[in-house]
Design goal:
The complex is a heteropentamer of chains A (86), B (249), C (150), D (119) and E (64).
Chain B: H1 2-26, H2 36-47, H3 53-61, H4 63-83, E1 90-92, E2 99-100, H5 102-124, H6 133-144, H7 146-150, H8 153-158, H9 162-185, H10 210-238, E3 239-241
Antiparallel strand pairs in B: 1-3
Helix pairs in contact in B: 2-3, 3-4, 4-9, 4-10, 5-6, 6-10, 9-10
Chain C: H1 3-24, H2 28-52, H3 59-79, H4 81-84, H5 92-113, H6 117-140, E1 144-146
Helix pairs in contact in C: 1-2, 2-3, 2-5, 2-6, 3-6, 5-6
Chain E: H1 8-31, H2 37-62
Helix pairs in contact in E: 1-2
The chains are: A mainly alpha (86), B mainly alpha (249), C mainly alpha (150), D mainly alpha (119), E mainly alpha (64).
Amino acid sequence: MADAVIVVTLLLTAACATAAVTQRDPARQALVLSVLGVVLAALFTVLQAPDVGLSQLAVGSALTPLLIMLSVRKTRRRGRSKEDRE
Amino acid sequence: MNRLRLWLLAVGGTGLAALLVAACLDLPRFGGRSHPYGDRAVHASLRRHIANTIASVNFDQRAYDTLGEMSILFAAVLGCVVLLRQTRDEHRAPPEPAEVARPVRRYALLVLPVALVTGLYVIAHGQLSPGGGFQGGVVAATALHLLYLGADYGALERVRPLGVYETTDALAVSSYVVLGLAGLLAGTAFLANTLLPYGTFNTLSSGGTVPLLNAAVGMEVAGAATVLLAHFLDQAVEIEDATEEEPGK
Amino acid sequence: MNGWILAATLALGGGGAAVLWGVTTGPPARRILAQNLATSAVCPALLLLSQGYGRPSYVDLALLLALLGPVGTLVFARLLSDDLAGERPSAWGLTWTAAGLGLAAVVAACAAAGPGRAMVKLLVIGVLLIAGNVIASRALAGGFRRVGGG
Amino acid sequence: MSHAMDVLPYLVAAYVFLTGCYGLATSRHLIHAVGCLAVCQSATYILLLAVGYRAGGTAPVFSDIEPGSRPVVDPVVQALTLTDIVVGATVTALLLALVLQIAKRHGTVDPDELRELRG
Amino acid sequence: MTRRTDPRPLLRASAELLAWWLALALLWLVFVTSVDTLERIVGAGCAAVGAVLARAGRRAVRWR
């Protein structure tokens, strides 16, 4: 019974990972990835690894989404200006 | 072509899945009681008066590996700087100032120092409570970028002289190496934690060189993350190549 | 298995499933709202887990999430402001419900901690969580009106 | 129930890894592929921490508990995972920088179109 | 260049810095579990860094 919280977070992680892969648009995938980061932090907490959870939170909740979204913005802007020229 | 690839993926994936499941069934069962390395690591950590065993493993027992990890981070940032530099056919166009709602701007300005101090707290207490140089460094660097989110890129550029952060990054890596060499000069070994007294258990000064190495890593990560984000922000916001139209035209 | 962990399991399971459903379906505006709710669901769960395991030092995780979660939402609200331009997503009912959940968790943890510095820390986390939640919702409802090149 | 619990975390790690590989192989956008690689990496975190878990244990951090008063989980794998996360983040950043360079050079971020360009 | 005729901006700047420093030092004391001398020194230093950055950030945003 004490394992219930571990099972719940594990299944949530698996579902989040599936969702992150099936979202084909990178911006939407970044949204799911940031949720995955938070869920992973919760999983690490229930696995009694608060240090790892902290570093996953620090990286996954703000830094990685910011990097991905900036890259998306750059590629989108290039694409848009190319369409304008054609 | 595409169908062939999918078939190949299906076959390879099934094979890999079968192997992985077989391996999983053979692993020691989840939650088992036998962790010989863990018990010894905890023992070694307590002997050196370090409350957070993970910090002890990272900065004392495996400090040499952490040096490798730091140089990976340093090299990766260097690679990003080279890849994302401004080339000759590109020019900079200062972005128009953004119009941000007042509550959001005020939130960003109020939370910035709070997040920075939290990051520094996480770095300083790395050898006591959960946390450490890496986590706190990322938090401190993220705090700075609240200025971009809450105002505009110009505001961030005014409080972020990039050269300072690049220097901090390099200085932090070299101070880690110097701390390691100090052990060598003292007649023991590279990065051996025998230099400083171990102090009282569960205080800020406990653990010999661990707090210093922790602070070095924290500075390095904060500098590296800021430099990294700066180049991505430059690319996404400021730098345009010749084919791109300027927004004003 | 004590009551704290049971409550955290419910918050994680229920909140997590709802967030996952919201973040994978619908227009961009709804997805970002769901991403914001992930913070408001997991942060109280982390506070409850810290109580349940009897480890006050786990509170740092909730502190960091309360600080950085809204920052992540602001990233999306800012860099996807073009997609949000047409629709002004404002789910204030949901936002205040999430804030109430956070408040309940903080009050319960404070009652268990008793007066002292630990209680003030919990209150700081509560203030950061609720303020961040509300501000992120505000940012989505037209917080970035004209973000040209920036 | 308890028997399934013995291997469930390992199976979840394997599943997450395979899911990430599937996304990586079928991706039509390089940034999406980088995200799938991040999913693959998170499988390694789950596996490492699952190996180090001890039933009824708590974190080996003694700032708020007395050393030896409670069983603790394995700190060595946690330190490994910490390094793993750092390296994972830097890999993501470096790959994104490469994607931006590819977008600049070839004007596309679709792996299939890139292959056609190569001819 | 600058003539020091008006002491008010200086006064206001130091008041702002001091207010931030006090608030952040209090925050540090709330975060930590046990207080000793070194803890106070480190906390005061970190709060000073935070206060300087808080003022720099506010000025940068007000700039335009």
